[in-house]
Design goal:
This protein is of the alpha/beta class. The protein contains 9 helices and 12 strands.
Amino acid sequence: MKTKAPVLTGNLNFTGRYFVLTSGKKQIGFSSKITDQAWKQEMKPFLESRKEEDFGMIVRTNAYKAPKEELESELIQLKDSFKKMLDNAKHRTCYSLLYSSAPSYLTGLRDSLKSSLEAVITDESDIYDAIKEYLIQFQPEDLGLLTWYEDSLLPLRKLYRIEKTMEEALGKRVWLKSGGYLVIEPTEALVVIDVNTGKYSGKKELRETIKKVNLEAAEEIGHQLRLRNLSGIIIIDFIDMEAEEDRCLLMERLEGILSKDPVKTTVVEMTKLNLVEVTRKKIRKPLYEQALQMKEKVSL
C-alpha cells in the first residue's frame, strides 16, 4: 500500500461467502457485525464438530441465519481446496503458483451482503461467462440478476456514463442535492473529508440548515468510501452543530450508514473539535491509485 513495504505471511486464507478458512489462527471466530450471542452459542458446537486441527475458521457476516446445509457445503469445499493445495505443493517445483484469489469482479460479488445486489450487467463475454459459472456454483439465488448487455448503438459505458462517473469519482469535490458539497482529499497518512454548505439556501433557520446538510453528507460519505475504496484513518469535518442532540443524531445516522458497508468500517468518536474519526479496513488499492497505475501503463 502506497510507500509501505510489502508484507509476507505463511498463513494461508481460503475465503468463501460464509467462511474464511485459515491456517494461521486455529480457533473459531465470528465477524464483528454478527452481534446475536444466542446464534453464536448455537453455532459453536456445529462448527467445532466440523473443524480440524490444522486450520481455524472465521464466520463471515453472510453466514448469519443462513441454512446449515449451505454452511456445511461451503466448509467442505474450502477444506477440499486447502487440502488439494497442500497435496499439490509436494509435487511442484519452486516458484510455481499453487493458488490465487479470484478476480475483483468475482470477489465483489462474493463479499456483497446478502440481498444487497440489484443487478449484474456486463458486455464482456469472458467476464459474463466467469460470473455465470461462479453464480451457478456458489450463489445460485443471484443468477437471475446477471444480464448480458448488447447494443451496438449505445455501448454499456455510455449508457451508465462510465467515463463521467470515473471523472467524478477521482475529483476532489462532490456536490450534494441540497447544494452543499464535500471536499475529499486522500493524503499519505489519512483521508480528510470536509463538509460545506455551498449553494444551500434553505428558508429554515440556520440550525435546521446545518443539520440537513450534515445528514445528507453522511449518506454521501458512505457511498463515496465504497465507490473510491478509501481506507485507513478517515477524518470527517462536518459543519459544527451547537446542539448535543443534533450531534448524537448525526453520529447515529453515520454509524447506521457505515454498518451496511461490506468492508469493516468503524466510527470511533467525535473529537472536541467536532472532527469525526472513522477507520476502514484496507482490502485493496483505492480507486485513485488504481487509476494512476493505469495511466502509467498506458504512457509506457
